[in-house]
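Re: Re: ligand-bound prediction request (bumping)

Still looking for help on this. To restate: I need the protein modeled with 2-deoxy-2-fluoro-alpha-D-galactopyranose bound, output as structure tokens. Inputs repeated here so nobody has to scroll up.
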Amino acid sequence: MEGPDWVDPWTRGQGEARARALFSQTWDGEAKGVWSAPGRITIIGEHTDYNGGLSLPTVTPHRTYVAGRAREDGRLRVVSEAGDWLEGPGRTWECDMDLIDPTTAQGWPAYCAGVVWALRERGFDGPGLDLAITSCVPPGAGLASSGAVECATALAANALWRLALDSDEAHAELAEACLHAEEAIAGAPTGGLDQHTQLRCREGEALELDFSEHPPLAQHRPLYFPDYGLGLLVIDVRTAGRRRTEGFVERQRQCAAAAQALGVASLRELAGAPDARMRIEALADPVLKARARHVVAEIERVSDVCAELANTGPAHERFVHVGKQLYRSHASLEVDFDVSSADLNLAVDSAFRAGVLGARLVGAGFGGSAIALVRRAEADHVAARIDEAFVAEHRPRPRFLMV
Ligand code: GAF
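Reply:
Sorry for the wait, this slipped through. Here it is.
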């Protein structure tokens, strides 16, 4: 049996060269520049964003690249290297910018055309654009590949339209435009975690996001793990969740209903409150009770992990503690939030048996990926054990990414 299947990131140079080549093969002439955005990995804090909560994400070295050039008319033309990375109409797509709406932009073009639409809705405008998109962020892996397309497109428009939206505050504005695009044009619900991470978090750092503010407050934190020989192993179980959109909307509704039943504006208000457990357990509806239990406990876990990472105590104790919180987060997402799957549970269980510090599903769930906090020197061995577990269970073999 061959060894585990690793998805290596492109270097920035490789990604930019691919995007430029795609551009000039498709549209005559050269691109004016290339802009890129990473995938998103939530270290901890899942399904907390749309509850006004906290989350601690970081980004992947895997990025989506958009080569672009301004036009002299008002047309948008886009080519995607892999036309099948999302459902869609083939490799190229074009439209007058004035005509972009949910009926003209469907499938993958919705994610870039939607951003152009959303920026113009906010009063940011410029000439038409020619764009070429290429990506090494695996699609359907729970790593926000669609957010990466949106954010790289937003950065391209920002530069080509000379909008000078370059500060963290301005990137928060771009992130809001991207999530508006995802909801209004692509028709995919989102809570904003992905786009704020992808536009505001730099490689090698973590971002503490607080969604009680709008736009969310972002505090830049060191990633801590590399200094201690640790890393995040991503296990893509290759079952993109078909129930993802439907399940996500249902979770948003249930959380809103739980908050209403508890008499709070958002579940965030209960995190850290001394009587929170008692109030939640008193809810009559068992589903709302379970959803609220996950959200409140997950927000508390984010605070706890942030404090533990910033702590100066003995490293082994701190990281063992962080790892336990990752396992708890997974259990809560599986049992109380009901967004795990047999493959994700197998990924987490086999990672545990291979001796990782902690593991949990990442992103919305319903398929996608799990992450494991591993000693970098052991990553190959851990990936091989997880791979064997999937083969033994006759399931599709996972793909692995190292962050
Ligand atoms: C998806 C959503 F798009 C995010 O907003 C977030 O809710 C995440 O699922 C779960 O934490 O990626």
